[in-house]
Amino acid sequence: MDSGDGVVHAEITVTVNGAARRLRVDTRVSLLDLLREELGLTGAKKGCDHGQCGACTVLLDGRRANACLALAVAQDGAEVVTVEGLAGGDRLSPLQQAFLDEDAFQCGYCTPGQLCSATGMLDEAARGRPSAVTPPGDGPPELDDAEIRERMSGNLCRCGAYVNIVAAVRAAAGEAAR
User: Fold this and answer.
1) In 3-state terms, the chain is what percent helix, strand and coil (to 5)?
2) Are 82 and 43 in contact (CB under 8 A)?
3) Where are the domains of the chain?
4) For the chain, how big is the Rg over CA atoms in Å?
5) Which of 50, 89, 104, 169 is the most buried (most CB within 10 A)?
6) Is the pLDDT of residue 4 over 70?
7) How much is the pTM?
């Protein structure tokens, strides 16, 4: 619906971190801007705003997505999980704990996107989805360092904490296998 100034708004319902939200959104706004500016969820970061760095990664209907590239209006009925929704109350997720244990961050700017991407990646691997480096075979791929690096390649870290990020994902994958 046009508000008279040429701006078109739409009513959407989106579930964010488990809470259903009915929102009136400008049809041009990205999911990232909706999360940060309208809902106050500032965990997802605006890095490049072109879908190239992964700082804005969230889980959209259970899959990794760059929130800067997703129009909010297109998410009507969707379920969004941000880094704020990964923990179980006051208890960190195993992946978040592994990031702390392995010192998998330096400045921390990319960490929310890394955490959401790694969460989605672990689910993809558990479901047996192959990556470009997964050897042919049956069952879930082995999450060795090469496999983790390939699957996390869409998330950049300017500080270069990749070695510790891979170690944290590997540790969390081992914890999930137990």
Assistant:
1) 35, 20, 45
2) yes
3) 9-84, 94-177
4) 17
5) 169
6) no
7) 0.93
